[in-house]
Write a structure and sequence with these properties.
alpha/beta; 3-stranded antiparallel β-sheet; about 30% strand
Length: about 230
């Protein structure tokens, strides 16, 4: 069987290559958005295309002609839309499900192949790595082995809005636990770290650990023009 995996984050790329080596199927891994064209996919003729943490647009000419599966970090149809992890954490949610769904024109509205539980403790990086292991070691192999057929989503649709970089600011109204959540939920590759404005500078926070009424973390100070 021919399998195409398109993924752009380092933790997924590593696991995709491990999966490529261990699988009996013919696995191709693409990590750049320029690789994903109708012509290149037609050249492979994959039986499945999987998109773990792929942030780029998937052309309709591809998802209308191939079985394309994306993975969303909510129990769909709850949490359709952008920034699922961050939107879950700011709502105080501590566990969720990873939904494997078919790509359609409407964002996160496709039929569901499979769901698996996911705990939301730790930094965003730790959560994404945890999710990637579930996706590559359990969900993708199970979907392929069982040649799964998706089923329509059921339940009330709740939509999330993609968070903006300015929403990463730590404001004075937050509790110590909310500050910790704000830091950890943005502590990952490619995400705008939590920050505090201080004169002409911004203080960026990562690697947070909470201990009752205190937080230990790393701080990067950066001068910002027009701050």
């Amino acid at each position: 069987m021919k399998i195409l995996i398109c993924t752009a984050k380092s933790w997924n790329i590593q696991l995709a290559k491990e999966f490529q080596k261990s699988s009996k199927d013919q696995i191709t891994v693409w990590t750049e958005k320029e690789e994903l064209t109708k012509e290149s996919v037609d050249g492979l003729r994959p039986d499945w295309i999987f998109f773990p943490h792929w942030s780029y647009i998937i052309p309709s000419s591809i998802y209308e002609n191939y079985r394309c599966v994306v993975f969303h970090m909510t129990d769909l149809p709850f949490g359709r839309g952008g920034s699922p992890l961050q939107n879950l954490i700011v709502r105080g949610i501590t566990e969720t499900k990873i939904s494997a769904l078919r790509v359609t024109k409407t964002l996160d509205a496709g039929d569901i192949y499979l769901k698996e539980p996911l705990q939301l403790y730790g930094s965003a990086t730790e959560i994404y790595v945890r999710a990637a292991k579930i996706i590559f070691k359990k969900m993708i192999p199970e979907i392929i082995a069982q040649n799964m057929q998706p089923v329509p989503q059921e339940g009330e649709v709740v939509e999330f809005k993609r968070r903006k970089p300015e929403e990463s600011e730590i404001t004075q109204d937050l509790t110590i636990s909310q500050i910790y959540d704000r830091i950890r939920m943005l502590d990952a590759e490619g995400y705008p770290n939590a920050f505090i404005k201080f004169g002409k500078c911004r203080l960026y926070f990562t690697h947070a650990q909470q201990d009752f009424n205190s937080i230990d973390c790393n701080v990067k100070i950066e001068e910002v023009e027009n701050e």
